[in-house]
Design brief:
Largest interface: A-B, 24 and 22 residues
Helix content of chain A: under 10%
Strand content of chain A: over 45%
Largest sheet of chain B: 6 strands, mixed
Low-confidence stretches of chain B: none
Oligomer: heterodimer
Number of strands of chain A: 11
Shape of chain A: globular
Structural class of chain A: mainly beta
Order of helices and strands of chain A: EEEEEEEEEEE
Number of helices of chain B: 0
Chain lengths: 118, 115
């Protein structure tokens, strides 16, 4: 079964509204989770590193006020796309490193979320 | 700098052909991990292999095999006797052995296998 669960898998929202995507680690505690965005026919681009109990670290060019990340517990990180616009339509996927296995380099990905802003 | 290069953007083969997907990486770290993922049209990432920098043994798993060569900083992936179900985007990725760091992905190679 899934070790990292992401929800929703697909969401359509109206322009100007906000949408929240959840990423949960099911079998381990993830102090660090990562959020990626993937546009069609492109690679996965790291948006931000989500740290439990502290502020997320955003990659250059990613608007932190637009993409709000909250990592309030060791098993849950959320990405909120605020005031969404059609250009935010993309595939968003989270990942988490399991610190207890493989030297901390066992990495699990969520199923991904397709966001369409209309 | 950390970087992964997949020079082949798209590859098209006919079923039963063998195909090799190239991956070249750059890192200053002596300890790192390399990965291959498969991404079908549904979007999810399917883990294929993880290899650490101290293990240069080639790996074979069914029709899949991987050739890791530190001397050329390459981690190539070969599919033997390709099948239509192998059609997907394949990503090579790198992660340094530093806590809290994310995977660095190549641009991906789109493999199309026709019958």
């Amino acid at each position: 079964g899934a070790v990292v669960s992401q929800h929703p898998s697909r969401v359509i929202c109206k322009s100007g509204t906000s949408v929240k995507i959840e990423c949960r680690s099911l079998d381990f505690q993830a102090t660090t989770m990562f959020w990626y965005r993937q546009f069609p026919k492109q690679s996965l681009m790291l948006m931000a590193t989500s740290n439990e109990g502290s502020k997320a670290t955003y990659e250059q060019g990613v608007e932190k006020d637009k993409f709000l990340i909250n990592h309030a517990s060791l098993t849950l990180s959320t990405l909120t796309v605020t005031s969404a616009h059609p250009e935010d339509s993309s595939f968003y996927i989270c990942s988490a490193r399991d610190p207890s296995t493989g030297g901390g380099n066992t990495i699990y990905f969520g199923e991904g979320s397709w966001l369409t802003v209309v | 700098a950390q970087k992964v290069t997949q020079a082949q953007t798209e590859i098209s083969v006919v079923e039963k052909e063998d195909v090799t997907l190239d991956c070249v990486y750059e890192t200053r770290d002596t300890t790192y991990y390399l990965f291959w993922y498969k991404q079908p049209p549904s979007g999810e990432l399917v883990f294929l292999i993880r290899r650490n920098s101290f293990d240069e043994q080639n790996e074979i798993s069914g029709r899949y095999s991987w050739n890791f060569q530190k001397s050329t900083s390459s981690f190539n992936f070969t599919i033997t006797a390709s099948q239509v179900v192998d059609s997907a985007v394949y990503f090579c990725a790198l992660i340094p052995n530093q806590a809290g760091t994310a995977l660095i992905f190549g641009k991906g190679t789109t493999l199309s296998v026709s019958s």
